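At this stage, I wrote out one protein, both as residues and as discrete backbone shape codes, and that material follows here.
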Amino acid sequence: MSRLFIRAPLAILADGAEGGIVVEDGVIVDCLPSGGQPEAPVDETFDASSHVVLPGLINTHHHFYQTLTRAHPEAIDKPLFPWLESLYPIWARLDPPSFRLSVRLALTELMLSGCTTAADHHYLFPGGLDDAIDIEAAEAEALGMRVTLTRGAMDLSRKDGGLPPDSVVQDRDVILQDAERLIGRYHDGATGAMTQIALAPCSPFSVTRELMMESAALADRHDCRLHTHLGETEDENAYCQEIFGCRPVDYLEEVGWLGPRTWLAHGIHFTTDECARLGRHKVGVCHCPTSNAVLASGFCPVNELKTAGSPVGLGVDGSASNDGSNLMEQVRHALMIGRLNYRSASAVTARDALAMATAGSAACLGRTDIGRIAPGLQADLALFTLDELRFSGAHDPIAALVLCGATRADRVMIRGEWRVVDGLPLGLDLARLRREHGAAAGRFT
């Protein structure tokens, strides 16, 4: 077990660690005050005097496959429902080779932005792509990325009153059997887990009540988490009122999802009372600021949710509604959109936005071993330099990352191992990945 001393950072997002941190066997074992030195010998020292050190950023909602359809002419400038209706037939052409490249590119893009843990919501299983989650697990392991892979699903097609076409939905029994298989093969509930599985029926307008209820029961049996889209648009509210005779949060309770096992994507159209209700039950919410802006869906009430007791994290959402996979950009967008929403320059601070992307996101995923820099936690770190012109003249290094628009980490550590060095992922040919992914995306015109 080697010991690494990350010494004297320019700034660090942790109290009492101004002198640096010591990492051993993938875990932070000591935080040192300014001028402090490790008590026990170290094997290596990294001079961090030019780096701002953050806990590794945590992405709590994504759709990796959508990297193949960014800025697609069929979907540009449309709100959610028409956007989905335009893209579903195109996404139905997904196959294993193109999907594998989409996953690899999304994970790499995230890692380069300082992300060390990513949750993907994959719910499309056209013929031949039955092992989509297995592909994701293999790609994440190869890159050394920590992941929560959600077994998404849709079993309510257009002919049944749902939104998706018949070609992209599955039978409920097939969905549940595969979910149980994936939990048995990949889900690790231990401290420091690299791969976890969650169950994620897609949305109220694409899954049946029965699938929601049986997924909740399965998650309870296996102690894994639940995830879905909720409260994203007024169209969704209207759909729930018409089909279920209630609002989305009421529906969530009816199907047994209103509890701390659940985290939701978007959470925009909640009333004040619904925010309080979600908070009482400790339901997490992933804020997706860029996607919400691109689709003009609305503003997530992040402060009301946090005040009520809900964990609030950050997500990039799909790369066809973002249209990127850069989590550090989401931190800045969360600040800007939050201030615009609340019409207050102090409503969301730089540190508030970073907290959503770290500790808040960890809480959404039910993890207490990541999201902060402290002894005993996993050594997941994102290190940024301030040597670009945009940072010249910045006086608060941590605030500068957000306010001046940092986009790329110089170094990224996951489980105590460097995965990005000098702004480049180790062991990966970026030019080749760009070329191969671009060629695969050409099939989705």
